[in-house]
Structures are given as C-alpha cells and as structure tokens.
C-alpha cells in the first residue's frame, strides 16, 4: 500500500518536473504567434507579424548568416580534430593519458565567461575579435569535446577484425580508415558534428565578448534584443531556432534508422552465403 | 665476441641506475600521435589565452597583486563572491532534490516511458540557454503566465514578484542544471543490481529500509558527479542570472562582463576570472579524489 502511494507520489512529482523541463518551449512557441506587442499572457489573437519582422529586418538575416558560417566552419574543424583525437584515445598509446584527456575535456568544465574573457583579451592584440576566424577558433574549442565523447563511444564498439580483414587483403591504414572504420562510426561522427554545430549556433557567452559592429552572431543579436526591451521578434526567432534544432534531430534519427535497416540488409545475405 | 660485448654492456647497465630518458616517456605510437593536432590546437587557442589573461590580471594597470587586493578592499565584491557561492549551493541542493526522484522513477518505468522521460530531459539540453532564460522571464514576470493565471483564478490580488529575485534566479538556473544532474544519476542507478534490494527484503528489511540502506549508497557515485558538475557549472553562469536576477543577486559572471564592457577594467576582470578559474580547478582537484568525473563526462551523451 505504501509502495503504491510512494510510486503515485513519484509519478506526480516526475510529471511536474517534466512540465518544468519543457516549460520554456511551452511558453515561447505560443507567444511567438501572438499579435500583442507586449507578449502578454494569454497570447490572444494569432499573428505571424513577428516572423515577418525577422524577414524585414536585415539585422536578423545578417547575424543568422554570420552564425551559420561560424557554426559550419567550427563543426567541420571540431569533427576533423575530434575524430583524430578519438582514434588516438581508443587505439593509441598516449603518455600522461589522464592529463591529456583532462585537457581535451576541459572546455566542458571551464565557465564560458572565463573562456570568453581570455579569448577576448588575447584576440584583441591579434585583431581576431569580430572576425569569423576568431569565432571559429573559440567555438571549435567549445565543441570539440562533444565530438571526442561521441566518436570514442562509437569506436569502442567497432569490431577490429573487420579492419584487420581489410588490412590483410592489402588495404593501407588510410584506405582501411576511409573504407571500413569511417562508415562504421559514421553515426557517431554525424552526431558529434551535429552537437558541435549547435554548440556554436547557440553559443552566447563567448560570442558576447567577441561580437561588435563588424560581426555579430544571431544569439548575441537576440541577447541585445532581450536586454534593451523585451522584443517579441525574439520569441519568433526562438521558435525558429527550436524548429531548426528539433528538425535536425529528427533528420539524424531517420538517418540512423535507415542505416540500421541498411545494415540489416547487408548482414542478411552475407550470413546466407556463409551457410 | 659479440656475445661477450653484450654481456659486459648489460652488466654495466645493471650496475648503474637506469638513465632517465624523457623521450621514452613522451613517446606516442602511430595511433597515439593522432591526438597531437587537437592537443596543440587546444593549448594554443584555449590554454594560451588563459595564461595571457592571468598575466593581464597581474600587470594591468600596474605590476603586482593590486587587482586581487581590490577585490577584497571594497565590500561590494566579496558580497558578489558570497552570493555566487550561496546561489550555486541552493541551485545544487534544489537540482539534486528534483533530479534524484526523477532518475529513480526512470529506472522503475517501462522502456517506452523511460524514452519519454529521457526525451523530456534532453529537450532543455538542446534548447539554447538564451531561449530558455528568455522564456522563463516571460513566464515569471509580473504580467507573465504564472502571475496572470493565478490572478485570473483569484488566488492572488497582486502579482508575486519573482523576476529579479533570488527565487527567480534559482528557478531559472535549476531548469538549466537539471539535465546535467539527471543523466549521471540515471546512468549510475541503471547499473545497480535490483536483486540486492529483493535480497534485503527477503531477509526482512522493509522496502524503505532496503532503499535507504542499499540503493541510496550504491547510487552515491552518480550523485557525487551530479553535485560536482552542477555546483561547478552554477558558479560560472552568466545569462540566466543576468536575465532573471536583480542587483542584489549579482553573480561573479555578470561582474566580469560588467567590468569589461562598461568600465573597461580589463585587469580587474581578469583577476576575477582567474579567481573563478582557480576555485573551479581546486574544487575539481579535491573532489576528483572521490569522483571519477572523466568517466561521467565521457558517457554524457
């Protein structure tokens, strides 16, 4: 009896926590469609005027393009560096392994305010603030641990005999990597890349330090839109950002599913011929 | 002839202490060397600026510890530091109180519900902090969803002030921190053999007794990782306290940005950031003796 009561209590608590977790989404999405300019609640009349606002104002488009460029470049850098490092961590002999792993994971722990300030101070002297390169360098640091974590998880489950088979049939290490290993770990590489993309696309804190009249990313533009006065356009932008993120996750989920189905097709006939 | 030479040489080696060869220690094999590009990149782009910042805190405007003395010379700044620790501690306690039962329920329910509960945790994980904090401002402000709902229902006459208060900051920061706490706790709980609980109960323990004396201690490693992660991250929050907190709840992150953007005291901001960095580092080193944070970070995703 007490067990049932405890479970029921737990379930209610969990339901409340669940609502709390998605509360921001529940708030922002309906409000972005509201006609009122004060984002009042309840939203009242529906309207798309804030979405029109985004398209009318070049500030939003420009900063979105700047963000896109930075996010694409830094996720590519993060994937290349991260995959190499993950291969080393799983396969290689590395001296001072724990220290090196700690360095690779440090950007996950060090507060972004510190990273932003340090980069700002250092980049001012190099003229790298307000440049795409400066943003890409910093965002690659922030994103690369996510790639490493994802790819390490993928690599651990790779059957090395497949690689050995390829090598014994005459493939060199590079060919083996691109023809055998990479296709096997592709889902985790893609997941890592997607993580990296969104770390950069979303990132505000270091971006506030690095932004200026010459280059401002979308989150920083949104930040100033919130700070000065509550601008409902930001709600519409938030909805769009949410759409992009969840859209990509659905795409990633589908790719995984397709890959799994494809793999099943491949292993099917292979076992048949073996028998 | 050759064998004799070898013998004598090994004999000589045995007699003397082996020479310390650094190159041998630092040897990466072919695979291991692949870590070098990232390592060099991080040292240059991530590590070097931190060193530049540290030196700036000691040299700007003049050489010495003046900036660090300034932090404690004025009553305002120690209060911000105290606030930062207090808020981080409250956030950690509240987060743990919510994350633990949530993670526990995740281990009890079936696979479908578990996926749903996990999905709910991952939604905020992948919603930008800016969007979330902005939405919580809309929710908590005087004319926001929370207050206007209560007013329409005639529960309250006047809106309860939530935004720019400690409650507001904690509400927002816990929302941000929850996923980071639920995931390591859930991962640890999933590894607990539930037959141990059955064994305890079959030996006469009441379910509650079995839970507190067996399950809770076994889940401690996940809890410790969650507490450490939540607290360390909470120390450095900027966006959420800046939007939801008032002037009384200023945290060190806001102070750092303020010093750079409005008063241009780079050296002082660098000193504050160095202080925060050292605190974080110290916490990790001390707690690292008890918590395998690397393991928890590596399986975060």
TrEMBL record, chain A:
- Please report the name of this protein according to its UniProt entry: Putative spermidine/putrescine transport system permease protein
In what way does this protein cross or attach to the membrane? Multi-pass membrane protein
Tell whether Transmembrane helix is among the UniProt keywords: yes
Report the CDD domains cross-referenced here.
Answer: TM_PBP2 (cd06261)
What are the alphabetically sorted keywords of the record? Cell inner membrane, Cell membrane, Membrane, Transmembrane, Transmembrane helix, Transport
**Annotated transmembrane regions:** 12-33, 70-90, 102-123, 135-156, 177-201, 234-255
- Quote the cellular component terms of the Gene Ontology held in the record: plasma membrane
Which family does the entry's similarity section mention? Belongs to the binding-protein-dependent transport system permease family.
Specify the domain of life of the species encoding this protein.
Bacteria
Instruction: For this entry, list what GO says about its biological process.
Output: transmembrane transport
From TrEMBL, chain B:
The keyword Cell membrane appears for this protein: yes
Subcellular localization, per the record? Cell membrane
One Gene Ontology term from the biological process aspect of the record: transmembrane transport
Ranges for domain ABC transmembrane type-1 come to 81-287
**Keyword terms:** Cell membrane, Membrane, Transmembrane, Transmembrane helix, Transport
What family does the database annotate? Belongs to the binding-protein-dependent transport system permease family. CysTW subfamily.
Q: What is this protein's name?
A: Putative spermidine/putrescine transport system permease protein
The organism encoding this protein is Thermomonospora echinospora
């Amino acid at each position: 009896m007490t067990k049932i009561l405890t479970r029921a209590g737990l379930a209610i608590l969990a339901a409340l926590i669940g609502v709390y977790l998605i509360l921001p989404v529940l708030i922002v999405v309906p409000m972005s469609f509201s006609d009122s300019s004060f984002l009042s609640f309840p939203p009242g009349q529906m309207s798309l005027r804030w979405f029109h606002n985004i398209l009318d104002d070049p500030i939003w488009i420009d900063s979105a393009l700047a963000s896109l460029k930075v996010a694409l470049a830094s996720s590519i850098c993060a994937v290349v560096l991260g995959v190499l490092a993950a291969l080393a961590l799983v396969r290689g002999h590395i001296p001072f392994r724990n220290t090196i792993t700690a360095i690779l994971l440090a950007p996950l722990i060090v507060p972004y305010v510190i990273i932003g300030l340090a980069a700002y101070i250092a980049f001012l002297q190099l003229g790298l603030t307000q440049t795409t390169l400066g943003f890409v360098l910093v965002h690659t640091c922030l994103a690369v641990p996510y790639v490493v974590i994802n790819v390490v998880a993928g690599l651990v489950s790779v059957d090395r005999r497949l690689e050995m088979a390829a090598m014994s049939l005459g493939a060199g290490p590079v060919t083996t990597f691109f023809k055998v290993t990479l296709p096997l770990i592709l889902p985790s590489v893609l997941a890592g890349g997607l993580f990296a993309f969104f770390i950069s696309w979303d990132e505000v804190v270091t971006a506030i330090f690095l932004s200026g009249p010459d280059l401002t990313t979308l989150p920083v533009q949104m930040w100033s839109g919130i700070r000065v006065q509550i601008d409902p356009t930001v709600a519409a932008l938030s909805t769009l950002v949410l759409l992009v993120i969840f859209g990509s996750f659905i795409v990633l989920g589908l790719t995984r599913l397709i890959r799994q189905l494809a793999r099943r097709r491949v292993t099917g006939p292979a076992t048949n011929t073996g028998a | 002839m050759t064998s004799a030479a070898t013998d004598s040489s090994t004999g000589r080696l045995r007699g003397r202490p082996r020479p310390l060869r650094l190159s041998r220690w630092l040897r990466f094999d072919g695979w291991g060397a692949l870590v070098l590009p990232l390592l060099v990149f991080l040292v240059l782009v991530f590590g070097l600026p931190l060193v530049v910042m540290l030196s700036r805190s000691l040299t700007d405007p003049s050489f010495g510890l003046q900036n660090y003395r300034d932090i404690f010379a004025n009553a305002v700044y120690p209060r911000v530091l105290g606030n930062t620790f207090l808020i981080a501690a409250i956030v950690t306690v509240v987060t743990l109180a919510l994350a633990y039962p949530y993670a526990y329920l995740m281990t009890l329910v079936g696979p479908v519900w578990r996926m749903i509960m996990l999905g709910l945790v991952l939604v905020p994980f992948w919603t930008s902090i800016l969007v979330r904090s902005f939405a919580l401002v809309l929710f908590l402000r005087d004319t926001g969803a929370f207050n206007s709902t209560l007013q329409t229902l005639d529960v309250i006459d006047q809106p309860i002030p939530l935004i720019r208060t400690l409650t507001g900051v904690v509400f927002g920061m816990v929302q941000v921190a929850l996923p980071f706490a639920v995931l390591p706790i859930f991962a640890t709980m999933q590894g607990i053999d539930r037959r141990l609980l059955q064994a305890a109960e079959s030996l006469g323990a009441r379910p509650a007794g079995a839970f507190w004396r067996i399950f809770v201690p076994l889940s401690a490693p996940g809890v410790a990782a969650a507490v450490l992660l939540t607290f360390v991250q909470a120390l450095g929050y900027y966006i959420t306290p800046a939007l939801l907190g008032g002037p009384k709840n200023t945290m060190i992150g806001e102070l750092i940005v303020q010093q750079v953007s409005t008063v241009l005291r780079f050296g002082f901001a660098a000193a504050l950031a160095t202080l925060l960095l050292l605190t974080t580092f110290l916490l990790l080193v001390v707690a690292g003796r008890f918590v395998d944070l690397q393991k928890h970070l590596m399986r975060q995703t």
